Structure prediction request, 548 residues.
Amino acid sequence: MNKEILEVISNNSAIPHEEIASMLNMSKEEVDKEIKAMEDEKVICGYPTLINWDNTDEEKVTALIEIKVTPQRDMGFNKVAERIYKFEEVESVYLMSGSFDLTVTIEGRSMKEVSRFVTEKLSTLEYVTSTATYFVLKKYKEHGIVMAEEKTGQERMLITP
Amino acid sequence: MRNPISSKVSPIKPSGIRKFFDIVSEMDDAISLGVGEPDFDTPWHIREEGIYSLEKGKTFYTSNSGLKELKIEIANYMQRRCNLKYNYNEEIFITVGGSEAIDLCLRAMLDEGDEVILPQPSYVSYEPCIVLADGKPVIVELKEEDNFKLRKEQLLNAITDKTKILIMPFPNNPTGAIMTREDLKEIAEVCVEKDIFVLSDEIYSELTYSGDHVSIASMPGMQERTIVINGFSKSYAMTGWRLGFVCGPEVIINQMLKIHQFAIMCAPTTSQYAAVEALRNGDSDVEKMRNEYNRRRNFLMNEFKSMGLDCFEPFGAFYVFPSIKKFGMSSDEFATKLLQQEKLAVVPGTAFGDCGEGFLRISYAYSMDDLRNALKALRHFVEGLDK
Prediction:
């Protein structure tokens, strides 16, 4: 694992490898190799793009669902989580400490679509004892990036001692 | 009408940067690598503490020397980072930026005709402040072949019976040079032997990229003859908060504080509350910014190499100081043409002393996107010159 490379690409995976090499005083080949190794080890699991759908004409609805489940003998929570994360609609699944067990985020085209998924697919799973669905009204920040911010201009003077 | 202006003030030249600033401000689409302050915003938890202090109505003067809790945090910081013990009550006080501390120190210590050894290239305000305090600046020209460090022999050559203070501006603006423990040891020995005081401006102390910063005050026999100036502007990206501090022997601090008391009263209260938070919980912010600066520094050095621009490798601050001597132009000419042809603003080395001739100060307090664009323009310009 190369922590410095991860730091550089954590907020921008689109930086060319030549430039990462220059910033870290490495050769491009070394960077290629390190990144490949981290991909193989599943340290780097993918390079999704952060899209603010609110700025498009596309309708998108995100919901956060708290789920209580009965853990299964010989299966624990993992098997239950797997049954859930295999659905394409599911964006993320986390096992939680506290008063419920799993947090699931769902992305759909409409509230109706999300509701149908929860009532027909999720709550009917045999281990699921209850669900609570919360619809996201606005996304302010995701992956450390502020989405709702108005563009601010350059505040600094152009030349200072 | 009589001449309204003091004969001490009128001969002082305005900063060389000013002239360039005026040209750049006239252009709408200039890109600049000419800024001497961080591009980061002050970390939110620090800003938030300033806001909270306002909400709680903490809008009064503090004591002249500053908030007690801030002075205590500074004493802790000096112990933690420089292994130096200061009594928070008698040997530390809070100033309006490092700049005020420089002025106070010179005014408190100098009599007419006292000489101050000033290594250049260095920050623009030392020389005028020396003159305003009736001192006589004795310039020592730092050399590129010495990596812009102050050498013992240079110091010895500059010392006379009248020498009182040596200014130590490291990590250095504009060159980015630093002085290591070994470098400082030689200088410290001379200062002790010749009974010279040191004004050590360590405002960039947190921005060193080859191991920890070393304060000259931590050399044997030096704490009693060194005024250490530091502040929050560069390390915590707090330039606009105007907050610095000074640590030194009580006899000097007392006199500096007297001038501060009559001229300034106290440093801004809101900024002081924010600074307490910075020192208590800001180490990781500093580290993050330092790492980011260091990557940009590497990027710049590699880009310069590939475009054939000579540059010694600086290990401090956020400046690089490439040499343009081989292009047969003065710094001013080079910077002016670069601005006219590529709309890229940099600062000519001469703004920091005559011996900055042949060099440019390029700041990397910019995002990678800005640096990439600016370096593309610089490369285009340099390649045009080679032809």
